[in-house]
Amino acid sequence: MKTYRFLLVLSLLLIPAAAAPSPIVTDRPGFLFSSLTAGRGLFQIELGLPAVTLDEARSTSLFVLARYGVTDRLELRIDSPVYNRRTGAHSTERGFGDLEVGAKWHLLDNTGARPSLALIPSVTVPVGETGFSAGKPVYQLNAMAEWTLQDGWGIGALAGYLNGLSGGSRYGQETLGVSLGRSLPSPRWSAYSEAVQVITSLSGANDSSFLGGGVKYLISDDSQLDLSFDRGLTSDSPDWLLGLGFSARF
Fold this sequence. Notes:
Helix content is 5%, strand content 58%. With 250 residues, it is mainly beta. The protein has a single domain (32-249), classed as Lipocalin, CATH 2.40.128.130.
């Protein structure tokens, strides 16, 4: 009997322990995404309260992004500005926005010069209220690449294309962005900077450019706070994009 007990204890000790999950990785703040998915069987929610100031108008939106990991390389996503408030010189409008449904497919891991790469296709369903809806479906495809460097540094690059319909005519919009990030001396803090160019063929709209950055703080391995800003660099860009966010993984 003692021999059997000894063999049972030994076999339990030899079974590999399950690896602890890595700290949460989010798709906020900023324009760029992460190239990683939420993880198999994990649900992640990311909340953001960006305030946009453009000349005399101010727009505030509450964004909610829900992510669920189907596999370690594939996640399903639902995103929406669930509340919007736009204040002009003489009026204030409120309403909920459209619903964006999509997925993220992690294609490659970062190895040497080869980046960690993900594709993020989505379609925006026009369910928002008047004034806060595109009115027609909008199709998007984003490609996100990341490289991990030495001493906690990292580089990201985004290339995105949007196809929409306005006034009976299709238009395209390209988003190109780069980011530089670094973990700070405290392991729970990190910071990043980004530069983004948005090129559009939409009639009556002009290209936009942004330069910004932010900080992220890990409350725990499964929750994060973030604070960000972006400055519009062209006359038709929003003057400032200010963001405060909270993310949690279950």
